[in-house]
Amino acid sequence: MIHYFIRRLFVGAITLVLITFLVYALIRMMPGTPLTIVQAVGDPSMQMSEADQKRLEKAYGLDKPWPLGYLDWASKVARFDLGNSLSRKEPVVRLIGRRIGPTLLLTVSSLVLTYVLSIPLGLWSTARSNTIAERTVSMLLYMLYSLPSFVAALYLQILFAVKLEWLPLRGMKSIDYADLSAMGQAWDIFLHALLPVICFTYGSLAYYSRFIKSNMQEVIRQDYIRTAKAKGLTERSILVKHAFRNTLIPLVTLVGLTLPSLLSGAIILEMIFSWPGMGTLFFEALNERDYPTIMGLTLMFSVLTLAGQLLADMLYSVVDPRVTYS
Amino acid sequence: MSTAPPVIDIQNLRTYFHTEEGTVRAVNDVSFRVERGHTLGIVGESGSGKSVTSLSIMQLLATSAEIESGSISFLGKDLVRLPEPEMRDIRGKDISMIFQEPMTSLNPVFTVGDQVAEAIVLHQKTSKDEARKKTVDLFREVGIPEPELRVDYYPHQMSGGQKQRVMIAMALSCNPQLLIADEPTTALDVTIQSQILDILRRLRDTRGMSILFITHDLGVIAEIADDVLVMYRGKMVEYGDVLQIFENPQHPYTKGLLACRPRLDTKYRLLPTVSDFMESEPIETPDGPDVKIIEKKLDDVRLQQLMTHGRGRLLHPRDELAAMGHPWEEGHHSPDSTMVPDDAKPLLEVKDLEVHFPVRKGVFSRVVDHVKAVDGVSFNVYRGQTLGLVGESGCGKTTTGRAILRLVNATGGHVLYEGRDVFALRGGEMRAMRRNMQIIFQDPYGSLNPRMTIESTLTEPMVIHNLAKSKAERRDKAAALLEEVDLKPEHLRRYPHEFSGGQRQRISIARALAVEPDFIICDESVSALDVSVQAQVLNLLKKLQEDRGLTYIFISHDLSVVKFMADMMAVMNAGKIVEFGPSDNIYAVPKEDYTRKLINATPRDSLEHIRALQEQRAKLRSGT
């Protein structure tokens, strides 16, 4: 197990270098630099002089060829320094730190909600397979699954924020947030988060419950389920104990794969709801060609993806006794 | 049969499947009873309805199946009309069941001890600790070594035989009145099979339990049953005392089944088949289509043909025979044996063949050990011979076959085919060599591509080896091949799923023959087939050998099949050949303990053996 772990970390480190190198190369090859972008959107009368531009390029390290730029960045990272944002003039770490909370609030509550709802739903639809109720629910879920969440987000905003005025339209906090009591603040954030969380959840809910159901149906055809029946167990304990325990095995892979999405957020949904999260940050950084921020975020997502896979594999050996890493 | 009240009494059971293609009468008017302490063996081929009968008793039928009529009376209760909660109380407590596949019948994510204890807690309302103690005792009773340790094992940590013992322990945990054993030994090696049969016999006699033993193997029936019920296409065709059925079978199907098994002491060169005893003719009845069975008599001419057709044994040249301790002397070899001429060169020479699989450990996956699947195997095969490779699962027989064809890479040794070193051949040369050497696999379901028509399956090798000029010529050749394996040219356009297991195996044979090879490895090629189909395929293989002068390596776990097919036999164990010699001699005078063990474990259905078993039991009973 420990040998396996060390080997995975080693391979992971190499993968990380490759990913960041490729991403760095790609963003440096995108048309435009932080300087030209600023000028393109800025006041035409305030154009920079050629000398100023040269000076700034030197200051940002843009005068060197990009492979050297990558080495600069990588050597800083090795000293645990993600550098400063070019467009916001503050350390990337602090920038990310400010955005991570709001994103986690959305993604974690959505993930918990998904699991809490989809597992019973999946079990129920296996037990009631092919009844009218189950088919109706499955069809509804499938229809929801095919409805893009950004479309649903707009409709929900129109209905609940504009027409009914029950919920705030956008943002994470009201204007008078600072004046509210602690309970009031929590309630305020809850109201703001409600629609984004629903939009985050419903699609994956359909996906997860279908995933659980199809895996359960595979499992209940196995010989050992027949053995459990012949033992005299009730339908319920066969389903919940014997079958679901085996469905956990593929489910664990999914958990690992969702780890990076917990922090990346969803760019479009965060934009629609003006949610101050990581998705918005990533989008803005890309627009501003803010290389250090883009790279900082890329590094974080890559680490999380690799860690997620490692976690999935480790969990695998926990839920499936046949899997050992030696 | 005694007059004591039966444990189970089934009257006119009919279980039908309602499918889109119509009604399948899986169990069609079956009646039988099992008394306390008795064993009823139900024999039949796949699709005969024997498993559906047992699932009907347990009320575990698939949703598409329904018990149409009849009664299943278990100690006076009619199970057909019993509400599900009451039936659940009976399942696992009064009636329990063991299944064919020990590998898949246990839940992989729970320890075996937990799975047995679960039944004890459920039916006996004991505490978990107590259930665990009982489980350990049960494990000891069914012969699992170190039971205290093994209760915490997961299924994958145990061998197939041990898993089947766990299944038996689970079935016995609540001291059932009736044990239903559905092909419990079919997936096991013969030596394990004989141990499991021993356990079942002992438990039956000490606990006074009744057993319903379902199998396709009449040899196993002879080892365990008191009464026998023979099923054919959902109907019972014969029902009676085991001795009577073996001594004087009444129904032509029973006669056919008994005759088509290759016995270890058979005198036949070709096997009789069920079709020698009966013909079936489709008829229309008020209930739908059915078949009428017309009895045929196996006449003397055919009997003579079966015993004398083709050649007898073709043995190795004189000096090699002498070297293996079976010199060519008067009376030493069976009378119809001949020898390969002294100056003949072997078609295939296998020299010190080794296949070692590395075991890796550590951060850098260093090789720390090897699994020696094949460990220094040498033998010669001469043109026209059949060499049998026999041994239990994991002995290396299949790996040997595959290494010869370079389907797995050998790690040492040489294989010479007509004097050419097969392992030294490069890409194109090896592809050309493959034309000479073909293989027929075990699984008739997995070894044909389901998305290719039979025509493309058969003509693809002809295209690769450029054996025909045009598509039309290839099709003609493919049609001729199908006829050669007793199928019809119109089958060319069909897909594999439209054929039965036996037919698919014929297609696999035709595919191997498509490149006109000289040498074919049959790797457990008949093991997945019903005995009656097995007899037909074995006869076909012998006929093809005669017509085309083929040379075979015949690999099987079944000693009696290998002995029937092979001129020379190699017994393998743990990657090595333990004994090599003429098949008849190895069977008659085995030199090695391991060979003797294999021979003794093979089920015997001789009348003397059945009588001996019955006397043993009678003695045991009067003793207690």
From TrEMBL, chain A:
Example GO BP: transmembrane transport
Give the matching InterPro entries. MetI-like, MetI-like_sf
Query: The ABC transmembrane type-1 domain covers which part of the protein?
Result: 100-312
Q: Which GO terms describe its cellular component?
A: plasma membrane
Q: Where are the transmembrane segments?
A: 9-27, 104-127, 139-162, 189-208, 248-273, 293-312
Q: What is this protein called?
A: ABC transporter permease
| Keywords recorded for this protein, A-Z | Cell membrane, Membrane, Transmembrane, Transmembrane helix, Transport
Q: Where in the cell is it found?
A: Cell membrane
Topology versus the membrane, per the UniProt entry? Multi-pass membrane protein
UniProtKB/TrEMBL annotation, chain B:
Q: Which PROSITE patterns match?
A: ABC_TRANSPORTER_1, ABC_TRANSPORTER_2
Write down the InterPro entries for this protein, in alphabetical order: AAA+_ATPase, ABC_transp_ATP-bind, ABC_transporter-like_ATP-bd, ABC_transporter-like_CS, Oligopep_ABC_C, P-loop_NTPase
UniProt cross-references to Gene3D superfamilies, sorted A to Z:
P-loop containing nucleotide triphosphate hydrolases (3.40.50.300)
**Pfam families to which the protein is assigned, alphabetical:** ABC_tran, oligo_HPY
Keywords tagged on the record: ATP-binding, Nucleotide-binding, Transport
**Example GO molecular function:** ATP hydrolysis activity
Superkingdom of source: Bacteria
Locate the ABC transporter domain: which residues?
Answer: 8-258, 348-599
Per the UniProt entry, what is one GO biological process?
A: transmembrane transport
| Family stated for the protein in its record | Belongs to the ABC transporter superfamily.
Q: Note the NCBIfam families from the entry.
A: PRK10419.1, PRK11308.1
Q: What is this protein called?
A: ABC transporter ATP-binding protein
Q: Which organism is it from?
A: Aeoliella straminimaris
